[in-house]
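Researcher: Here's the sequence for the chain we discussed earlier.
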Amino acid sequence: MKADTHPTYFPSAKVVCACGNAFNVGSTVKELHVELCAKCHPFYTGKQKLVDTARRVEKFTEKVAAKAAKAAVGGKKQKTVKRAAMKAAKKAQKKPTRLDETL
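Model: Thanks. This is the structure I predict for it:
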């Protein structure tokens, strides 16, 4: 096996955030500089604002409403039930062609 194939691991590497927060983690780099951390990220601080620029929520609700309206008219499940009933009725009307079918 080759010697020195793995990088040096630093068990207490320092991570410094742009907000000034610093903490230690294990890494292959001695010091890391990051832009966001758990102290300043909007998701973790509760200051996150959801902006729906592409009307995603409205499109989803419209799609769900259209699907519900289509199911009320006659969805796929109703078609399969109707088709099975027609097949059963057709089979009941069929006359036997052999003697063993009459018994």
